Amino acid sequence: MTYVAQMDYYFKILCVKAEPEALLSSKIADEDGDMQDLEKLAYTLKPDDYTFEIIPMDEKLLKNVAIGIQKEHPEFKMEIVTADENMRLDPEDENEKHVRFIMPEVNKDRYDVLKDGVKTYYESCKERMDATFAKCTAELTARTQGMDEKEIEEAKTEMEKINEKAKEMREKVHDDKQKEIEEAYQKYLTEQNNKAVAEKEKADAEGADVVSRRSDEDEFNFEDMV
Question: What would the pLDDT profile of 74-97 be if each residue is shown by its tens digit?
């Protein structure tokens, strides 16, 4: 796996959306207590960008599946749900259950965690790539001693092209993840703002209703006195 591919994998584990790669490290205890890959014991569905539906092949392993995934990703919101007919392994079992994991909202705390994680993995990738390029450059210089200058330059140019292409890929993967995080955070802020506006409008409406009722009562009392 290249350095950029490794960085991309780690970025996917820093879940904003439900990325299947994030489940690869989850180990589940089978009936004998042996640890198995998730795919050997359960089916994984992704009904939308932010949700995993994990369906154990044997419902007796429901708890083990939930524990195994939550151990790797405690940030996921977990629910034990009754399967609808489209997700039942046994169409006749209306009480069949499976585990649902929902990606956490990107609030300020989550935003900071994601940004720090991206920075760490990006800088690690950049350092390793720079070190590898420096090492390859030194090796190329040693191996091309005595060769024709044109051939040496061609070899250096080719290696630099490969390095530049890798750097472009690295920057794209990094920028795409940064954009994903920023969009998710802005989505959260917008939802919070809309919620606050709705609550204020509701409170204002209730306050206006109270004032109106009091006004009606005052008018009634005045006429009654007359």
Answer: 999 999 999 888 888 888 888 999
